[in-house]
């Protein structure tokens, strides 16, 4: 049985994109750089900011990040909402006896505030932020740290995420990984990363877990 389920956050369980877009554009403005439209910024959500900023500007990353964190403290948590049907799925998995965790690029204080805002803390035994791991996904460090906190073996856990970084990080542990269609795009890239399972709708996850428990193949 896949007793443990480790979720990515943005694009998998939540949407905080409005707050992220606002914080990114604030940081660009503070450095005298042109702002970017939401449709350009959103595909980078869930990835490290260091991957995004060089696409927009040559301004120093450290200064951009400092401005980003100032605004993000005001916008990210307040803008966050649960993606459709996530509440019901978390409730079902918890009732089924699954042990749930979050492993995300988001910093820990934002993760904790989001779990409190959505009343999800009761579902998650562990929540690991990107600032707690030595390296970002696709490095597997954050998943290994999460497994350590759960006192879980990789073979007993499934990762659920919406980006190739989630897939590659899980494969590097290695752990079984289910990719869920992201509201931010990258579908072809996600499919090409060869997750063990792919779902269009988070409501498919309980059935995927049950089938995987039984040794079924759903790729």
Overview of the structural elements:
- With 219 residues, this protein is of the alpha/beta class.
- The chain folds into two domains: 4-15 and 81-213, 3-Layer(aba) Sandwich (Rossmann fold); 17-79, DNA polymerase, domain 1 (Orthogonal Bundle).
- It contains ten helices and eight strands.
- Strands 5-4-1-6-7-8 form a six-stranded parallel β-sheet, sandwiched between helices. The protein has a two-stranded antiparallel ribbon with strand order 2-3.
- It is globular and about 55 Å long.
- The mean pLDDT is 95.
User: In CATH terms, what is the architecture of the largest domain?
Assistant: 3-Layer(aba) Sandwich
* CATH homology-level superfamily of the largest domain: HAD superfamily/HAD-like
Secondary-structure element series:
EEHHHHEHEHEHEHEHEH
Rg from alpha-carbon coordinates = 17 Å
How many structural domains are formed by the residues?
2
The helicity comes to: 40-55%
Tell me the number of strands.
8
CATH level 3 topology of the largest domain: Rossmann fold
CATH class of the largest domain: Alpha Beta
Shape: globular
What class do helices, strands and sheet pairing give?
A: alpha/beta
Task: Work out the helix count.
Answer: 10
């Amino acid at each position: 049985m896949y007793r443990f389920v480790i979720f990515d956050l943005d694009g998998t369980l939540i949407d905080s994109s409005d707050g992220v877009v606002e914080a990114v554009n604030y940081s660009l403005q503070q450095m005298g750089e042109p702002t970017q439209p939401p449709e350009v910024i959103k595909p980078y959500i869930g990835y490290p900011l260091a991957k995004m900023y060089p696409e927009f500007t040559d301004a120093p990353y450290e200064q951009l990040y400092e401005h980003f964190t100032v605004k993000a403290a005001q916008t990210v948590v307040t803008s966050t909402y649960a993606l459709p049907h996530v509440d019901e799925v978390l409730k079902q998995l918890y009732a089924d006896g699954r042990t749930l965790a979050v492993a995300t690029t988001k910093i820990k204080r934002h993760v904790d505030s989001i779990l409190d805002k959505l009343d999800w803390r009761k579902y998650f035994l562990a929540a690991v932020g990107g600032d707690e791991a030595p390296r970002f996904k696709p490095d597997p460090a954050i998943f290994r740290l999460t497994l350590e906190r759960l006192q879980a073996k990789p073979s007993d856990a499934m990762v659920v995420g919406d980006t190739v970084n989630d897939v590659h990080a899980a494969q590097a542990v290695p752990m079984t990984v289910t990719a869920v269609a992201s509201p931010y795009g990258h579908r072809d890239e996600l499919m090409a990363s060869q997750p063990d399972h792919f779902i269009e709708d988070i409501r498919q996850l309980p059935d995927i877990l049950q089938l995987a428990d039984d040794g079924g193949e759903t790729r």
